[in-house]
Amino acid sequence: MKKIALSVIIAFVSVIAMNAQEETNTSQNQKFGLRAGYSSFIAKVKVDGASASGDASGFYIGTFAEFELSDKFNLQPEITFANYSEDGESSSVLLVPVLVEFKANNELGLYAGPQFDYLLNEEDSEGLKRLGVGLSIGASYDISEDVFIDTRYTFGLTDRLDGDVEEFEGFNVKAKINYFQVGLGYRF
d(Cα 130, Cα 57) in Å, to the nearest integer? Predict the structure, then answer.
């Protein structure tokens, strides 16, 4: 799993570096940037029909690329580091969303797409699968050409409970992780 996450990071950074160095006429069709802000980690567990949830708050910081597909649509891959704290304990997650943005008008963008997340702390992932897949939906508002605010919610799609946990043997247990983010971004 660590090799997969590291490979994704290296490939993404390499593509950004190669594209940033190219001086072509298509520079208006692609942009790069940074985003940061508040994030919440929401764990939801269902056991034989009953459910419970818990959350932790933190921050995120990441990089993204915008590739213009048409006048109304952009492709926006990202790599984001998020850190969450609860009762003096902290956990780190690597988030890799690949979003398609619909430009409703010059300022408002709506987006959706898959998000891969990887729990970075091995001790925090005991009993859980470290790699998960979710569906992100969100919106952004351009304050200026370069600065924007955005918010998104990611619904966990994969069951994160590791099948080897003996305490849950004989029960129908599912665990999913959702994420909420709101913050600022800067395109350069």
Answer: 19
